[in-house]
Amino acid sequence: SLYFGCAAYIEQEGFTPPQFYIKMFMEQMEKQIEARVTAKERQEVITQFRKEFQRTVDEFFESTVKPYEKYIPLVIIAVLFMPLVTVTRLLVWVPTLLMSIIFSLLKAMGAVKLISETREVQRLVIG
């Protein structure tokens, strides 16, 4: 259902990068620009930089990411699902260990006992 939700949202709205990341990159570059520009020119240069940077990012996503928009939900699901699979595979031994300890304790206390049975079995063989 997460896949279908992502796919529907991207189909309606289109894919845009999170503004947080764009702003973070922009702030890093602005710091470098501020260090190299005089105080008089600073505001004008930063305003121009912001416009150019946003235009460049928009053009990049339009030309590079747009053709692959339909695969983005699959990537999102894979990125979220793979760590979950890894964690569950690493921790699958924990319930087995706990149950073996619990059954050993119950057997030692006499609350349960182990019974072995042999039963007669009929098999139908093709031949």
Blueprint (SSEs and pairs):
Blueprint: H1 2-13, H2 19-36, H3 39-65, H4 72-91, H5 93-109
Helix pairs in contact: 1-4, 2-3
Keywords: Membrane, Transmembrane, Transmembrane helix
Transmembrane segments: 71-91
A few lines on this structure:
With 127 residues, the chain is mostly helical.
Please explain how this structure is put together.
The model has no long low-confidence stretch (mean pLDDT 88). This protein is mostly helical and 127 residues long. The chain is elongated. It has helices at 2-13, 19-36, 39-65, 72-91, 93-109. 74% of the residues lie in helices and 0% in strands. The chain has one domain (2-92). The two termini are 49 Å apart.
Q: List segments where confidence is low: pLDDT < 50 over at least 5 consecutive residues.
A: none
Question: How many beta-strand segments?
Answer: 0
Task: Report mean pLDDT, rounded to a whole number.
Answer: 88
Q: Radius of gyration in whole Å, from Cα?
A: 30 Å
Overall body shape: elongated
Q: Output the structural class.
A: mainly alpha
Tell me the number of structural domains: 1
Helix and strand succession? HHHHH
Most strands sheet = none
Individual helix count: 5
Strand content: under 5%
How far the N terminus sits from the C terminus, by CA atoms, comes to 49 Å
Indicate the percent of residues in helices: over 70%
